[in-house]
């Protein structure tokens, strides 16, 4: 099993920044890719960004490209999502996920709320 714990959410004004963290523990060697997803009230879950542990190759959704950056610290088993130029439409619960491939996630965190006020 892999445990994922997110932190760093909060309330921020439009144009502001937040950095989310996702700390992984347990059988982390079974996860090759880490991703961030978000879900706003009444909407489906949306892919935000993903990173491969070994190579640091990243994929970022078009909706956040140029504003959000995903990174990882292998020594700390932690993945980050730096969010800049936040917009009210970025308001959502952000979940961290771990899996074996870009579209295959087996482990999920509880989520952290991000609220962007206008």
Mean pLDDT: 95
Structural class comes to: mainly beta
Number of helices: 0
The SSE string, one letter per element, is: EEEEEEEEEEE
Strand fraction band?
over 45%
Rg, Å, rounded:
13 Å
Short note summarizing the structure:
The chain is built from no helices and eleven strands.
Key terms:
11 strands, 4-stranded antiparallel β-sheet, mainly beta, 118 residues, single chain
Your description of this structure?
This protein has strands spanning 2-7, 10-13, 18-26, 33-39, 46-52, 58-60, 68-73, 78-83, 92-101, 104-108, 112-117. With 118 residues, the protein is mostly beta strands. The strands form 2 sheets. Strands 2, 4, 5, 6, 9, 10 and 11 form a 7-stranded mixed β-sheet that branches. It has a 4-stranded antiparallel β-sheet with strand order 1-3-8-7, with no helix packed on it. It is globular. The mean pLDDT is 95.
Strand and helix map with partners:
Elements: E1 2-7, E2 10-13, E3 18-26, E4 33-39, E5 46-52, E6 58-60, E7 68-73, E8 78-83, E9 92-101, E10 104-108, E11 112-117
Parallel strand pairs: 2-11
Antiparallel strand pairs: 1-3, 3-8, 4-5, 4-9, 5-6, 7-8, 9-10, 9-11
